[in-house]
From TrEMBL:
Pfam families per the UniProt record, alphabetical: MFS_1
All residue ranges annotated as the Major facilitator superfamily (MFS) profile domain in the record: 127-531
Gene field: 11430128
Organism whose genome encodes this protein: Medicago truncatula
Transmembrane segments: 125-145, 165-185, 192-212, 218-241, 253-275, 281-300, 345-366, 386-407, 419-436, 473-500, 507-526
Subcellular location: Membrane; Plastid, Chloroplast
Protein name as it appears in the record: Phosphate transporter
The organism's place on the tree of life at top rank: Eukaryota
CDD domains with a match to the protein in the record: MFS_SLC17A9_like
Keywords attached to this entry: Chloroplast, Membrane, Plastid, Transit peptide, Transmembrane, Transmembrane helix
Chief place of localization: membrane
Length: 534
């Protein structure tokens, strides 16, 4: 009778759950609290309190976890044994023990708890997201000066030439650590070098207002110090991703990281005017610079320079990464003569210079252009500067998806890189030529947005090419080509100030267009997507 009663009870639970009558199930089960099911045979009584298991039937089923949990319920309801009837005692499910919290815990098909989504994220993409965040902070700390320079120039009586000098001083330090950052990253690991860079530039950002009030030379030195920190970011990131990301995911991962720079410009340009108007221009540097410490805490806990260094990396993901064509062998000596003898390396260097001339001019001078030419006020200049960078963030990821899709369909990497970079050169060249013909500020902003949006395809072109042609030396190659890019920033930013004193904005844009066309020719003639350095 006891056995039949138990079977009847279990059948009742099954039918109640299957029919969806969970309320009736909870009501009827509540009548059985404290009941004792007994089996009597040969004077031997085996009993078990049903109340404990009943409470967990309620917890799991009444909260709608479904019929899938029925087997788990049946195991936890039977806690007695009878040798004659062949009923074995089962262990109490730890999730359903008295020590539980009473909360419904979702389970996978094999009965194991479902991890939160952030724990299910592949580790290589966690590394990508941390690099993305670092680059977001990088550009937030860089572009805040392009907004703050407007009230600062009024307070300290700076002319256009002085403003150009201040803007270019960042690149003095930025230039120094490009190649050094690549060498350090390839030898010491990307985690150490990128972590150092973020801490260094964050401190320099915080100290910028103090330096400005002491005197112009101190401000120039502090901006150069900030450039030293940000100079190691790109080589270190390129190194760490060359070890973590398979070739099939390369364009998407790099595009996502570089879109962090664009979104950093968006956040910096959007929030800087409000901080300046409400708290004064120094508040921008204090608030943005302090965010680096938060990032650094996560970076120390979660990041590793290589998959081989990560003790928590899953076996399957490690196998995927190490078999995906990533760089495995650490660098001891750098073959400079071999590297500099390759035409595709020089194509990278020249193309990077041509690309960055136009990009850095827009990065540093766009708010001034909106303010002086389009007659927008400080807040409008900051907010409208957001649109081109937001466009870049979107189209960088679109370009990365297109590039990886083309590679997966069998299109050669060389062809993909040339297509992407040609768009990244010719698109901005076309839209900058239209600025002299537009009649309204709205159309000027639209041309700027389209120029920057097409520029973002470069992330799947030259910016992905370092890992294509020499994955072991990805950090050094990025440092080498970005040195040329930084020189373009130094000369281009300073030259723009002098051009504007003697000419017009059309003259500024004509120089950029000419360099875009030169870069297109050099890239399509000499670049390759094949590995040439091993």
């Amino acid at each position: 009778m006891a056995i039949s009663g138990l079977i009847s009870n279990r059948s009742f639970i099954t039918s109640s759950i299957a029919s969806g009558n969970l309320y009736q199930l909870r009501k009827d089960l509540s009548l059985q609290r404290g009941s004792i099911f007994s089996v009597q045979h040969g004077g031997h009584i085996a009993s078990n309190l049903f109340a404990r298991s009943r409470s967990h039937v309620e917890q799991r089923e009444v909260y709608g976890l479904g019929v899938r949990k029925l087997n788990k319920i049946n195991r936890t309801c039977v806690h007695y044994s009878s040798e004659e009837y062949g009923i074995d005692e089962t262990k109490v499910d730890p999730v359903a023990s008295d020590e539980g919290t009473g909360e419904a815990i979702p389970l996978e098909g094999n009965g194991s708890p479902v991890s939160p989504w952030w724990q299910q994220l592949p580790k290589r993409w966690l590394i990508v997201l941390l690099c993305f965040t670092a680059f977001l902070l990088c550009n937030m700390d860089r572009v805040n000066m392009s907004i703050a320079i407007l009230p600062m120039s009024q307070e300290f009586n700076w002319n256009s030439a002085t403003v150009g000098l201040i803007q270019s001083s960042f690149f003095w330090g930025y230039l120094l650590t490009q190649i050094l950052g690549g060498i350090w990253a390839d030898k010491l690991g990307g985690k150490v070098v990128l972590g150092f860079g973020v801490v260094w530039w964050s401190m320099a950002t915080i100290l910028t207002p103090i330096a400005a009030r002491i005197g112009l030379p101190y401000l120039l030195i502090m901006r150069a110090f900030m450039g030293i920190g940000e100079g190691v970011a790109m080589p270190a990131m390129n190194n760490i991703l060359s070890k973590w990301i398979p070739v099939s995911e390369r364009s998407r991962s790099l595009s996502l990281v570089y879109s962090g720079m664009y979104l950093g410009s968006v956040v910096g340009l959007a929030f800087s005017p409000f901080l300046i108007q409400n708290l004064g221009w120094p508040s921008v540097f204090y608030s943005f610079g302090s965010l680096g410490s938060i990032w650094f805490a996560f970076w120390l806990r979660k990041a590793y320079s290589s998959p081989k260094d990560d003790p928590d990396l899953g076996v399957e993901e490690k196998k995927l990464i190490l078999e995906g064509g990533v760089s495995k062998t650490p660098v001891s000596d750098i073959p400079w003569k071999l590297i500099l003898s390759k035409a595709p390396v020089w194509a990278l260097i020249i193309s990077h210079f041509c690309h960055n001339w136009g990009t850095f001019i827009l990065l540093t001078w766009m708010p001034t252009y909106y303010n002086q030419v389009l007659k927008f006020n400080l807040t409008e200049s900051g907010l409208l500067c957001v649109l081109p960078w937001l466009t870049m963030a979107v189209f960088a990821n679109i370009g990365g998806w297109i590039a990886d899709t083309l590679v997966s369909k069998g299109v050669s990497i060389t062809t993909v890189r040339k297509i992407m970079q040609s768009i990244g050169f010719l698109g901005p060249a076309f839209f900058l030529t239209q600025l002299s013909h537009v009649k309204t500020p709205a159309m000027a902003v639209l041309c700027m947005a389209c120029s920057q949006g097409s520029d973002a395809f470069s992330q799947s072109g030259l910016y992905s090419n370092h890992q294509d042609i020499g994955p072991r030396y990805a950090g050094v190659l990025l440092g080498l080509s970005n040195t040329a890019g930084v020189l373009a920033g130094v000369f281009g930013t300073a030259a723009t100030g002098y051009i504007l004193q003697r000419g017009s904005w059309n003259d500024v844009f004509k120089v950029s267009v000419a360099l875009y066309i030169i870069g297109t020719l050099v890239w399509n003639i000499f670049s390759t997507g094949e590995k040439i350095l091993d």
